[in-house]
Amino acid sequence: MPQNFLSCEREQVMLMPPSLRDWLLEDHLAWFVLASVEEFDLGAFYDFYRADGHGRAAHDPAMMVALLVYAYARGQRSSRGIERACVEDIAFRVIAANRVPDHATIARFRQRLEDAVAELFSSVLGLCARAGMVEVGLIAIEGTKMHTNASQHATRDYDRIARQILGEADAVDREEDERHGHKRGDELPPELASREGRERWLRGAKRDLDERRAVEARPLRVRGRSACRRQSAAGGRAGWRKSWRSNAEQSGL
Fold first, then answer.
1. What pTM does this model have?
2. pLDDT tens-digit profile of 73-102?
3. Which of 157, 160, 162, 182 is the most exposed place for a label (fewest CB within 10 A)?
4. Would residue 2 count as lying in a domain?
C-alpha cells in the first residue's frame, strides 16, 4: 500500500477561498478594527486628496487608516514590516483587500496625516480597552498600562500612547531607511529571485558541497588504509618474533 499524505499542490488555482470573508473567523481582531474605523468621520483623511480625481490613483484612506491601526495595535511599527505582512499575513491581506502599498507610501501617509492618524488611533485604542481586548493580550502596547474605563484620564492615556507609538514607528522607519535605502531589506539576491535562478544556484551549490565533502573524506580513507597496513606489518613482525622464540626454546637455544 502506498504512503498516504494530504496533497500539497502549490500550483492549484484558487487555493484560497474567493471571498475575503472566508479567510478569517468572524471574531478576529481585524474585523473589529475595520468596523471601528467605519464608525468614525474620515473627512480629514479624504480632504487631503484632490477632489477632482486627477493624477495617479491613491490607496483608499479608509483602508490605509485601518491598516496602520491594526499594525500598530499588534506591535508592528515598521512600514517595511507592514508591506511584507500585506503579502504574508492573512489578516493584513483582508484589511488591505489584497492591495500591497509599498513601505514608502505607508510611511508618507503616516507622516502627512500624523495628527489625524493619532486621533483616530487613540479612539480605536479606547474602544479596544473598553471591549477588554487589552486584558486578553489582543492589543500589543508594550510597557504601557492602559485603563479599561472611559474616563477623561483614560482618554488622555490613549492620546499619549498613540503619539508614542507613532513616534516609535517614525524612528523605526528612519533607521531602516538608512540601512536599506529604497529597498525593502528582505529581497533575495538577484540570482535567487526566480524559480529558474534558484534551481540553477541550488544545483551548483549542492555539486560544490558534494565535491568538498569528497575531498575532505579522501584523506580519512588514505589514513585508514595506511593504519591498516601498519597494523598488518606490525602483526607480521610480532608473529615472526613469536615463532622464532618458540623454535629457539624447542632447540634449547
1. 0.71
2. 999 999 999 999 999 999 999 999 999 999
3. 182
4. no
